[in-house]
Amino acid sequence: MTPERIGPYRIERLLGVGSFATVWLGHDPVLDSRVAIKVLAENWHHDLRVRERFLDEARLLRRLDHERLVRVHAVGELADGRPYAVMAWADGGSLRDRLADGPVPAPAALDLLAEIAAGVAVLHRHDVVHRDLTPGNVLFRSAADGERVLIADLGLAKALAAASGLTVRAGTPGYMAPEQDDPASVVDARADVYGLGRLGLRLLGAEGGHPGAPVRLRAGVPPGVAVVLRRAVATRPAERYPDASAFRAALRRAAEPGAPAGRAPRRARRRPARRLAVAALAVVALAGAGATAGDAATADRDPGTWRSGPVTVALPAGWRATGTGWAGRYGPDGRLEPALVISPDPERWAVDPTVPGAFVGLSATAAARDTPASFVAGRPHADCVAAPVRRTRQAGVDWVVAGYACARGRPVVVEAAGRGPGDAGLLYVQITPPEGAGADFVDALLAGVRVR
């Protein structure tokens, strides 16, 4: 039976049913928004161990509170004693739903796999192993700057089964690592690497890729990707990549033009978590950006000018550029929309708040939904002091500019957006200027952003 309400939330419909929980779509009357409400199944709520495991996932997701994971807003308890967790609703459905509609285009599938790996890497940086990476646990949620890929269900069913004393496999057949079928084996981040490899074969494989079959990929997939996936699904954990970050780095290298196809990529050196963790005032656009083969930044004909697709940027003295794609924003060709990062040290900009730099992107999808003013307004920095929004016209573009002075992390963050010429799309620039630089530096940088 569909309940009318769960706590203060009005229930609209059933989203899904599992062995240990039921998920409902609810409406939050205070915030006027939809939420997903996961309720522990009635036949398990008297088992204190199962109940505690259910709450463990909610606590973990609440503690991590990351944009790449399903966020938990609150927990509560029904009148019959069953706990429930109120979570962000993934309005874009799951990867399982999308695969049921047909294959994902190869370029988009490569980008999607890299985004999934980035979400799993968040867990690995916090010493959490998912253990059940399947298409059903990869969700999509609309966001102000595009679509987010979310990782859901942190092996909850498996943990609940263990708590209840059931004898079940600790994973989903077809995606679980071989060691997960052995109760005596140690399961670590490499089990999730196996799951990522299986997801990669499902997304990119010519025949879906059942376990043990040769790795054969669809047309249009760079041949080096097969080497990466082959290593990821190795039977022995020691032969796989050490974690999701290393897998993602190898995948990105293999997707670059001219990448070697005949040998396995070098094992990525694992960076300390403190370097990988995004600062409190993380750069929103860059945190989700990932380099792709088609969007690599290249030197333009003019010295000191670099481009990504139709976007060209004049570099401040001593700055360099690196190519990226705009995370979650796909163009008509199925690839990420063009973007690039400029900085004296582009590789450190996302993780070191002392390094100045800028993210520059062009999005047709954002232009269809937002004005420059609404786009900038959708990027507040809650812990910072905002300066009055100003407007400036640079190189034929009318920019809306908002500045923030921050006590923690990056001392100054500037958000700017403007319409590209014609139907080019919405230009977005996020800047962390050098120490002591003012509006003149920002305007000069914006004057160097052009669309061909």
Give me some keywords for this one:
single chain; 3 domains; alpha+beta; Transferase(Phosphotransferase), domain 1; Phosphorylase Kinase, domain 1; six-stranded antiparallel beta sheet; eight-stranded antiparallel beta sheet; Protein Transport Mog1p, Chain A; 452 residues
Question: Topology of this protein?
Answer:
Layout: E1 5-6, E2 9-17, E3 21-28, E4 33-40, H1 48-64, E5 72-77, E6 83-88, H2 95-100, H3 106-125, E7 138-143, E8 146-151, H4 156-164, H5 189-204, H6 224-232, H7 244-255, H8 273-276, H9 284-287, E9 298-299, E10 305-308, E11 311-314, E12 320-330, E13 336-343, H10 346-349, E14 357-363, H11 364-369, H12 372-377, E15 384-386, E16 390-394, E17 397-406, E18 412-419, E19 426-432, H13 439-447, E20 449-451
Antiparallel strand pairs: 1-2, 2-3, 3-4, 4-6, 5-6, 7-8, 9-10, 10-11, 11-20, 12-13, 13-14, 14-19, 15-17, 16-17, 17-18, 18-19
Helix pairs in contact: 1-4, 3-5, 3-7, 5-6, 6-7
